[in-house]
Structure formats: C-alpha cells, structure tokens
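Subject: Protein entry, chain in single-letter code together with its fold tokens

Area: Proteins and the way their chains fold up in space.

Attached in line: The record itself begins immediately under this heading.
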Amino acid sequence: MSFATFNIKGYKSGLIGIGRHIDRSCKEVKKTGLYEDEAEKSLNLELGLHIDPSRTHLNEELVDTGGKSLSELVEQRISEGYTKEKAIRSDAIKALGLVMTGSHERMKEIESDKALFESWKKANWDFACREFGGAENIVRFSVHRDERTPHIHCVVVPITEDGRLSAKHYKDGIIKLQGYQNRYAEAMAPFGLERGIESSLTGRKHIPTKEYYKSINKIDREIEQATKHLNTLNPFHRDKAKKELENVQDKIHSLEEENKLLKREVSYTKTTGKTVRDNFIKNSLERVKREVNLIQHAASMGYVLDKVKSSKTWAVMEKEGDKVLIKNSPNQNGHWMYKSLVDDQDKGTIVDFMEKRGFTYQSICGLSSHHLDDRMLKDQKCLSQEIQDVSASRCIAQEAFDKVKVHEKNNYLHCRGIGRSTYEHYPSVKVGDQAVFALYKDLDHHGKGVMCSTISYGFDSKGSISEDGFVNSAKYFQKGLPRGLSVLVDHHIPVKSIVVTESPIDALSHKQIHKDDGSTMYISTCGSLSEGIKKELETVLSNAKAHELSVTLAFDNDPAGRQMDKVVSELAGVQQMVCKSSIPSRSKDWSQELVSILGNQDMLKVLQKELVRSGQEHELRKQQSKEPTVMGLEISMDW
C-alpha cells in the first residue's frame, strides 16, 4: 500500500527559516553562522543534514517570486488581498505551510516517469488552488527532489473571499483537517496513492518532521562515533577498534530485531487495514449524514431554491434539470434526507445524493458544515407554511402513506367499533395503531385526484379518559403540506351517490350504520372549511350534478356541524342542486352514534385502553434500547 501525505502548519513568525530551507540557502547560513532566530537555526541544522547538494539543481519553483524573500511575498499578498479596516493582530498567523508527498517507494516511481511526475505536480497545484482560495494566495510552490522522498512545499497566505486574513477559516477543527486528508487522497488516487488510516482508529501518534529527523540524526551520529576508529592503521588502536566493532555489531543486531517487529506490524496492518478503513469510512459517512445540512450543501454545489414552489419546511431545489426535494430538518434517525422529483430511484441521505452525482466516498467523508453559507436557510424562513409544488407534495404524502404500519387485530378502527369489511376496499385508508387517510385535491366524478397530504387519527398517547369513559382521540395533519379532502370510494363499483362528512371516521361509521352497498363515495372535510377546501367541494358538487349523483350532508349534530351544513348547502345552491341532510339522532357525531347502536361500550373501552397501553410499552422499550422513535404521527418521511 502506498499512502498520500498532506501536512499543514501555521506560521506567525519563522518565515525566514522555512524560506531559506525552501530556497536551499542553508549552506551560506551555516558558513557565516548567522541565523534570524533559534527556530531558523534549529530548522536548518536538523533538515539540512538530509539534503543532497548534487541533486539540488533538480528542484523547481513554480511561483514567480521576483527575487523576493518569502516574508516579503507574504506581506505583499496581505497588502493586496486584505480589505478590512481593522488592524491585523501582531500574533496573527500570516501563512500556512503545506507539505505534499507520498510513500517513498511510490514517489520514486512517480519521479522516474517524467510525464507522470508532471501530472502529479499539476494535481498538487490544482488541489492547493481549490482548497486555499486560489492561485493568488499561493506565494511559494517548491518541488524538492534533493531529499530522500520527492515532495512539495507550498506556502499560502490565508486570505478569504471576503478579504479577511483568517487561518481559522482554512484550518479550524479536526473535521476540516480530516476533510483535507480525504480530498487530497482523492486527488492523489490516480497516482496510486491512497488515504492512510485515521490516527483516532490506529492509536498512533504523529511525529513532527523535525523530531523524526532529530531521531535519525541521533542514530547517524552514534554510528559515526562508534566506527570512527575502524579504518585506522595504528596498531595501538586495534584492541579498541575490535571492542567498538563488537558494540556496532550489537547495535546492528538490536536494529535487526527492531526491524522484525516493524515487519510484523506492517503485516498486521496489511491484514487488518481494510477492516479499519471500512470502519473509518462508515463512521465518517455517518457523521456526514448527521452533521451536514443538505440544503446548504446543495446550494454550495449550485442548486437554486425555487421560492415559488418551496415552503418553510420543504425546499425544492434545481440545477440543470436535476430537481430535488429536501426537508429542512433531519429525520428521526438524525439524517438529512432528499428525494429526486425527476427520478423515483434517486433518494436517500446526503451520502446517496453525492454518490449518485459522481462523488467518491473519500470526497464525501471530507464534507463538513463549517464552510457552508446560511443565506439559503434565511431565504427559506421567509416562505409560506405550505409547499406549493404539486409533484413535491404528492411525493411527500405518498412516501409517508406507504410507510404506515398496518395490522388488522385490535387496530384503531376496531376499537372504534368499525369492522374490517367497512374499509377494506378503500385504497386511501391504512389502519394500525392509528388510522391514516390520504387527502386529495382536484377530484373527478370517480373520486380520483392528486394526493396532497395525509391525516392520522389515534388515541391520546397519554391515555386520558373522556367523561363517557372512552380514551380521547387526536388527529394529526402532515406538517407543511396543503389540506385536501378525504375520499373513500371503491373504484371497482360505479358511484351512484355522495355523502359528505366532517371526518373520515364519521364516514366509515355512517357507512356501517346504513349498510351501504359500496356505490357511495364518502367525502370528508377533516374539520376544515377553508377557502381551499370550499373550492374543492365546489368541484365535487359540480361533478355530482353533471353525472346526476345524489348528495347527502352528514355533519355533526352540534353548532359547528350545523354551520358546515349551511355553508355546503349554499355551495350546492350555486350549482342549482339540492342536498339532503342526515344527522345522528342519538349522539353528537356518527362515530359515537355507531358505538351507541352497537351497545358494546365496555368492550370498546377495554380495547382502547389495551391499545394505548401496548403502544406506551412499545415506545418505552424503544427508548430504553435507544432505537429511533416516531412520536405522534407515524408517517414522517424517511427516504
């Protein structure tokens, strides 16, 4: 395995030292003994020992310095790029030093192939420009071939797009640094170099270059000291030389043992490396799924928010015909999710989003939220509460409806006294612990329309009891979607009549009481008579008149129900048609009427309490096991 190596260091001072090292002016300094400071002296003494002067002529500088020193170039870039009025702090980091290379054996192979080496240099230049604010921020880009392994010293001035001098912008936090490692490895992949395993997984500690060279120099000096008399011809030194030779042999034996240990470690690394890398990728991708706001990230890729079709909750974003739908908050698993509006198979997490658009896992692992602009989120906060895009609302509603967990025994409708035969032929209802009904807009006379939302009915999760001893119920609309009408119709039987009720639960109760033969279409307002709902009802009544269908208004027997009856009757009057009215005689609504007629209130009370209790125990077990929990409406989108 050959690994890509990328290091980054900030410089507040000491630019003269690193500049002279890059320029190979170490010899002159060592001759005169003049150093700018102790840091420069230490740097040159340690690194200079490993420079091969016979190869220094192979080094290259790809930035035109104009004969200026590194310090002068840094100050010049700051004067040109820094646009803020605030004075720069004396302890500010003025430059970042990048070292880019790879495993020794592979780098020597790359160096030996002239065309490949040129491509490698260009790939490094492109990476530095892309990651650190463009070519104007690069003041040195030096290719060194006179040390053991070919490498590049790149010095950048951390000027941001908005004219700030901010090393923090480029170098803040472990996540950003890991991102550089990931993206650099991706850029080096064509050259046979891959990313090393993250230190948090291997437990290894990084040794600074200076310390590494210092340890090598120490061994060199010890061997030199131990062997300095071996070549002497003075016979008086032979015994001493023999003894020193024995010491050297002991040292070599010790190094051989150490080498064996290193070989075993390399073998172990090779056999376990894949598993560790797989775990690293898995952990990194999971972090990205949770951390990176997909709306902001899509915007950084050039996707534009469609403000007309989006809402505060849902973002419809488009780029060159690629249209996606993104919710503005993570799902119950903590993941940011999306759904393509042009390809039903294109959906999932931000990882799926990136992978299906040609990005590698290495580049995805490097994503973070630190650099993302929040202007898109601010724009979205100014939008309407409900999404306006028809295809998007249909997609959200359908996905949610399809995920409802269904069971037949002792389900919600059973506990309301409604038998399975009453609702089993209706595709727009699903029943489990809750009863979920699809809501539609733009209905025709067959009861077909565009799904726009859902409504869910379930018992109070706290198990509160009403005055008559039943468990209280609650209803939930899908957040951020437009309201529509509930439609219960058997599409295999021609429609002969229409019954309009307040809730679909009342509609099913009305059907069971009147033993309908299946030819009736039930329309429910779900408790709302907004302008949008009244418009939908006008369409229903118009279709009913055109196809000579009778219409019955079966609202609640209370002031609100009578008001609804009056409003809908007036809508029918506009169509010059007469609607019959049907109200429950024993109770407030048709649901209670059915319970009263059945005469088995005690049994239903027991069933309701049992359903609520089992649901509470189920939620408790999930929380204890730290499984994802869906509270309330169990139809939240999870693509």
In short: The mean pLDDT is 81. Residues 238-291 form the longest helix (54 residues). Residues 323 and 342 are 6 Å apart (CA to CA).
